[in-house]
Amino acid sequence: MEMESLLFYIYDACLAVYFGSSIFMGFIAAPNIFKTLKTRNEAGNLVGLLLEKFAALTYVLQIILIISGAGLLHYFNYSPLIIVLPFLIVIINIISGQIISRKMKKLKEIMGNIDNTPKDDKNRIMFNSLHKWSVRLFVLNQLLALPLFYFISR
């Protein structure tokens, strides 16, 4: 197998796993968990655990994308965006996971069961605001991945 084909295969497989798993998490797993479990608190706890595992997978896949993309860029003149966009995805994941998710976790510890916290409570309002930012960043990462399919398939 020639080097370009190998790097392309690695890149393409990691991109497909990342994008497919993000679609599954965001549009299938999380909504159905919130519909199925009895309380928002239980659902939020489960989705939070799944998102932690997904974040770890994302870091691994993005690093592989950056490394294999660097090979495709350096040796075969692919677009620099094949490494820039995965790098941005990692940065956004760090912001989402290390800043937003940590703040949400602290607020949840203060509130206890979110179902028992009044909707006008300042901590719940802040939690909801941070949750909206978390979702926006999640969707942004999905959107950033889309052009990669184009750049890698050219």
Which short descriptors sum up this protein?
154 residues, mainly alpha, 4 helices
Verbal overview:
The model has no long low-confidence stretch (mean pLDDT 95). This protein is 87% helix and 0% strand. The protein has helices at 3-36, 40-76, 81-111, 122-153. With 154 residues, it is mostly helical.
Tell me roughly what share of residues is in helical segments.
over 70%
Count of extended strands: 0
- Portion of residues in beta strands equals under 5%
Task: Count the domains.
Answer: 1
Low-confidence stretches: none
How much is the radius of gyration in Å?
18 Å
The CA-CA distance between the termini, in Å, is 19 Å
Number of helices in the DSSP assignment: 4
- Which sheet architecture does the biggest sheet show? none
Mean pLDDT over the residues: 95
Structural class: mainly alpha
What topology emerges from the helices and strands here?
Layout: H1 3-36, H2 40-76, H3 81-111, H4 122-153
Helix pairs in contact: 1-2, 1-4, 2-3, 3-4
Q: What is the gist of this entry?
A:
The chain is mainly alpha-helical.
